[in-house]
């Protein structure tokens, strides 16, 4: 708490959270970096290495005369600036990246021959990019949206990209629908409104006419779409892939990333406010955690399905709108990923990283999922457009660490200088090099899946069940989560203008759960229609008899899967939890120091929040650094609150509207509040203002009051309350205005 606070020292040392820094990869990681400025590079130069004598003035005919065309330095600088932007990603434009490493566990040779999944002696470098989908590059982090979770593995056998999301299913079943879906969710084309939001007519028009989207819609309306941190969300490969073992045997696989910190989300009211207070909330959170040594970690897990079991389920493994309940096929952990280094340059790394689902290594292969098949075309095509040509693999962030030797030559911005004349094969001029590598030499060979079919445009009947997993997802949530889904739908549909679209949506929701449809109907002021004109499933040609498009479920659908709920799988913990210590001049520093030290010991991050920035003075007149000034911050940026004692501080906070709002919002959002001494009066006043009464009874669902004689015990109770996170049993917070 003092200027040389233990918090800051601990943050520097922080061995508690910096668990598994993979030092062995540092050499390889260095190869990915370009250069840093040293003393020889200290002078300003042009791009041709010419030292520049004056970079403040353009070349002119006289000090007040016109600028001269001759000014090649001005032209070089402006031209470069004019070309600084590349097209932003058409989807997943807003993103943040970090470096790290992946360490495989023992025993994966039972499933795959992939080198990086079997090499336990040293980790494989990775680069991860997290993203939102719908918003532009400058949009808010806390949009209700799917999060991209793309991982590039720099393996010894070439690049492997696992380009996934934080939800295990997708909206559509066939890639040919992707442009339609994205056009519908993106801002409407005539006025480019709304930014980074699915709450508008075109989205729900498409959704209500394409019922295959219903399962994913449930995920999008759930708290998964508003994560507390990118470090606290799961990742999924979505499609069914194949793993191939040394003997050539194939098994179906679904990939999962499980965060070691558990899955946590914010509330919608918080998301809305965070978007204003700190639109970079997730980006900043990741950056700060990595910088402080609290390295985010995920376990990679696999669900394996033997070839013979392909048709064992009541859904098709090739249908990307379905998941395999973990209760049917458990997730087996096969390795751990640690993110341990922030980027040096956002553009060169995060913006130019080029993920392609076709970047694959021996031991992994594709399935016939029609969405996956379309992606195999789309990503390479996208990189050609965004990065300007076929040599994007030469950019440092995209470079394979395995040697690249082939006869491909030239092209836009080619960097490799290939010597010799042998740019063809077979050749004698180059000694026959480079040689094709058979499977024994590590060459990639596609799994020889027999294919025999009629050429047609159609969908398998096994894809027709659009609702049973949507219902399963809804049934799997606890009451709080169900309420959040209902409120999210009410928010979104209240923003939709067309009554027809809203009505169609109610009909769709009634297929998922009658009660949900009723509640949403009430929330948007419409009755759930018994019937509507026309066909909900318009993903078929107009003359199709859709009566056959009913689920042909031969096996019973799975009713609920506890693994799909966040709140039924709580993971309490203090690590990296941000706790606001609310103080004003004259505060009791002995209390805050004790709390602060304890929090740091447990890996939490205490922050001093005061009415003003700079220094705040304790009751003994000692100055302490203020981390956040009240006017620039908000309770929504923290996980918990401690209101300290000191009579002068208490009086000042009781007279400060921002401080009282801070307390009330923390209460409303079910987060832990600790208070002691005269701090109790501040909390009491804040709650009184909204008609709530703070009694002296101890610990009202996560509100921990310290009496003078049990200060130590109260600290422990407060820490426990912070670790729990949200105290859902708390009553009365809904009376606090949003
Ligand atoms: Fe993507 N997707 N996508 N997508 N996707 C892109 O590639 C596409 C899909 C995902 O951080 C684009 O480089 C099609 C599913 C992530 O750079 C583009 C289809 C999943 C990222 C593209 C899908 C994803 C992208 C835009 C349906 C989860 C960000 C920029 C057939 C498994 C990667 C780019 C990053 C990015 C196409 C569906 C995940 C246009 C055609 C399903 C995480 O190529």
Can you tell me about this structure?
With 738 residues, the chain is α/β, with parallel strands linked by helices. 28% of the residues lie in helices and 14% in strands. Strands 1, 2, 3, 4, 5, 6, 7, 8, 9 and 10 form a 10-stranded antiparallel sheet that branches. Strands 15-12-11-16-17-18 form a 6-stranded parallel sheet, sandwiched between helices. The protein has a two-stranded antiparallel ribbon with strand order 13-14. β17, α19 and β18 form a beta-alpha-beta unit. α1 (6-13) packs parallel to α16, α5 (178-185) packs antiparallel against α6 (201-209) and α14 (499-512) runs antiparallel to α15. The radius of gyration is 29 Å and the shape is globular. The two termini are 32 Å apart. The model is unreliable at 1-25 (pLDDT under 50). The protein binds CIS-heme D hydroxychlorin gamma-spirolactone 17R, 18S (HDE). The site of CIS-heme D hydroxychlorin gamma-spirolactone 17R, 18S (HDE) has 24 residues, from β2, β3, β4 and α11. CIS-heme D hydroxychlorin gamma-spirolactone 17R, 18S binds next to β2, β3, β4 and α11.
In short, what is this structure?
The chain contains 20 helices and 18 strands.
List the helices and strands and how they pair.
Blueprint: H1 6-13, H2 26-32, H3 72-82, E1 95-104, H4 115-118, E2 124-132, E3 147-155, E4 158-165, H5 178-185, H6 201-209, H7 214-221, E5 235-236, E6 241-244, E7 250-259, H8 268-277, H9 281-291, E8 297-306, E9 332-342, H10 346-351, E10 364-365, H11 370-386, H12 468-476, H13 479-494, H14 499-512, H15 514-524, E11 578-582, H16 589-601, E12 605-610, E13 615-617, E14 623-625, E15 628-629, E16 640-643, H17 647-654, H18 657-668, E17 672-676, H19 679-689, E18 703-706, H20 711-724
Parallel strand pairs: 11-12, 11-16, 12-15, 16-17, 17-18
Antiparallel strand pairs: 1-2, 1-9, 2-3, 3-4, 5-7, 6-7, 6-10, 7-8, 8-9, 13-14
Helix pairs in contact: 1-16, 5-6, 6-14, 7-12, 13-15, 14-15, 17-19, 18-19
The protein binds CIS-heme D hydroxychlorin gamma-spirolactone 17R, 18S (HDE).
């Amino acid at each position: 708490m003092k200027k040389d606070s233990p918090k800051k020292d601990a943050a520097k040392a922080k061995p508690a959270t910096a668990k598994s820094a993979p030092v062995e990869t540092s050499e390889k990681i260095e190869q990915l970096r370009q250069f840093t400025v040293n003393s020889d590079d200290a002078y300003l130069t042009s791009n041709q290495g010419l030292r520049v004598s004056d970079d403040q003035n353009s070349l002119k005919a006289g000090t007040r005369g016109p600028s001269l065309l001759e000014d090649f330095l001005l032209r070089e600088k402006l031209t470069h600036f004019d070309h600084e932007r590349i097209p932003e990603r058409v989807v997943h434009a807003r993103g943040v990246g970090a470096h790290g490493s992946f360490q495989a566990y023992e025993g994966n040779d039972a499933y795959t021959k992939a080198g990086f999944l079997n090499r336990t002696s040293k980790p494989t470098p990775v680069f991860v990019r997290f993203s939102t989908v719908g918003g532009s590059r400058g949009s808010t982090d806390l949009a209700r949206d799917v999060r991209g979770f793309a991982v590039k593995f720099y393996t010894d056998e070439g690049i492997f990209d696992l380009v996934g999301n934080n939800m295990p299913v997708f909206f559509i079943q066939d890639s040919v629908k992707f442009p339609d879906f994205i056009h519908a969710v993106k801002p409407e084309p005539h006025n480019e409104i709304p930014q980074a939001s699915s709450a508008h007519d075109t989205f729900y028009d498409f959704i209500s006419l394409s019922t295959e989207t219903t399962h994913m819609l449930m995920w999008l309306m759930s708290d998964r779409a508003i994560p507390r941190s990118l470090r606290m969300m799961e990742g999924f490969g979505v499609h069914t892939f194949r793993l191939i073992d040394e003997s050539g045997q194939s098994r179906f696989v679904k990939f999962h990333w499980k965060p070691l910190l558990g899955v946590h989300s914010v509330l919608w009211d918080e998301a809305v406010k965070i978007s204003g207070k700190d639109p970079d909330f997730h980006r900043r959170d990741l950056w700060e955690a990595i910088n402080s040594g609290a390295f985010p970690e995920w376990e990679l897990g696999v669900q394996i399905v033997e070839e013979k079991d392909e048709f064992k389920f009541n859904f098709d493994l090739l249908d990307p709108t379905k998941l395999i309940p973990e209760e049917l096929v458990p997730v087996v952990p096969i390795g751990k990923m640690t993110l341990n280094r922030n980027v040096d340059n956002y553009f060169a790394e995060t913006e130019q990283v080029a993920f392609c689902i076709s970047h694959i290594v021996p031991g992994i292969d594709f399935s016939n999922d029609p969405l996956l098949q379309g992606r195999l075309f789309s990503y390479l095509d996208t990189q050609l457009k965004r990065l300007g040509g076929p040599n994007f693999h030469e950019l440092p962030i995209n470079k394979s660490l395995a040697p690249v030797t082939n006869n491909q030559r030239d092209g836009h911005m080619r960097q490799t200088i290939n010597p010799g004349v042998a740019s063809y094969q077979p050749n004698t001029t180059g000694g026959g090099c480079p040689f094709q590598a058979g499977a024994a030499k590590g060459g990639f060979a596609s799994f020889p899946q027999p294919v025999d079919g009629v050429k047609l445009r159609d969908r398998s009947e096994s894809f027709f069940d659009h609702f049973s997993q949507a219902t399963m997802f809804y049934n799997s949530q606890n009451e709080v989560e169900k309420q959040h889904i209902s409120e999210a739908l009410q928010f979104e549909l209240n923003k939709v203008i067309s009554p027809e679209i809203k009505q169609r949506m109610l009909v769709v929701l009634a297929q998922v759960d009658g009660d949900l449809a009723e509640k949403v109907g009430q929330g948007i002021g419409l009755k759930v229609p018994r019937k509507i004109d026309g066909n909900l499933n318009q993903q078929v040609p107009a003359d199709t008899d859709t009566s056959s498009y009913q689920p042909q479920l031969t096996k019973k659908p799975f009713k609920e899967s506890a693994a799909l709920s966040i709140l039924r799988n709580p993971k309490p913990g203090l690590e990296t939890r941000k706790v606001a210590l609310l103080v004003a001049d004259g505060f009791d520093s002995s209390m805050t120091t004790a709390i602060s030290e304890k929090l740091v010991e447990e890996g939490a991050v205490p922050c001093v929040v005061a009415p003003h920035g700079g220094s705040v003075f304790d009751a003994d007149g000692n100055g302490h650094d203020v981390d956040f000034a009240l006017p620039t911050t908000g309770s929504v940026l923290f996980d918990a609150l401690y209101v300290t004692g000191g009579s002068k501080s208490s009086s000042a906070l009781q007279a400060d509207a921002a401080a009282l709002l801070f307390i009330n919002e923390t209460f409303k959002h079910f987060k832990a509040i600790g208070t002691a001494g005269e701090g109790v009066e501040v909390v009491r006043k804040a709650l009184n203002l909204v008609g709530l009464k703070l009694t002296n009874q101890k610990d009202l669902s996560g509100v921990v009051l310290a009496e003078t004689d049990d200060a130590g015990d109260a600290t422990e109770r407060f820490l426990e309350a912070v670790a729990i996170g949200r105290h859902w049993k708390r009553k009365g917070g809904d009376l606090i205005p949003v």
